[in-house]
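ok trying this again, last paste got cut off
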Amino acid sequence: MKKIKSILILLSIFPIVVFSQGRVDGFFKGKGNLDFVLGGGLEANDKYFAGTKKVGLTRTVVSYNAFLAYGITKSLDVNMSLPYVDVNGVENDFQDYAIFLKHKVLDKNGWTISLASGFSSNIGDYQTEGGSAIGQKAKTIDGRLVVHYFAPNGIFFTGQAGYSYRYDPVPNSIPLTLKGGLAKSNYYIDFWYDFQHGIGGFDYRGDPRSPTFRALGVSYHKIGATFYKPILKHLGAYVGTSYVLTGRNVSQGVGVNVGIVLKHFKKKVNE
């Protein structure tokens, strides 16, 4: 049981480094415990939803991610991330850093309820227009409710939803993420569904035309999976995949990602 808990605490890092999956997760690090993640990914998109109409626009995204997760107390974690993105081999820059705090408000009979809030913003003056745009330079204040269940046999389910407030001209959005999986002492696997509803905004090639790509409303339905394997006591590796089913003003294609996880336990994970 302790081995399974150790893996689950470690895997609280995955929400940010593996494409979507929500900004946070239902697992907690434990006071004084630290994880550092280095990962990379590739998205090969051959379609694009202009508004909700699918058109043939190719977009290839290579990303590199650095992520840190730290347990401030038994019930309070902080997550920090910074991605570097290359789009179509044309534009490349640091994208949007993110800082999140997650607080456990209920823990009973395998059920955990948590509240999370965070802020993200662009760190560089990257390109926001055209097919090689890196992002929308969105300054975002995010709030989430996270409901999590973990069974003694290692099966778990997590659901989270909230609201993302973005400074003009980027439209606000409503996120929802569902995840289920199995954690054993020598491996971990999960399957997830990620949804975002962009509130208002313009459509690409819509009428009226958007004055800037930053004002596009972005929605999507995305699915994916993650597999993690411990290698050494303080080292593990993961591989993941994702696919956009449908959406609005978003690219469609297959994404893959891999990375390594370095962890440090200052105290026992069950403290």
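PB: full thing came through this time. Residues 38 and 66 are 5 Å apart (CA to CA).
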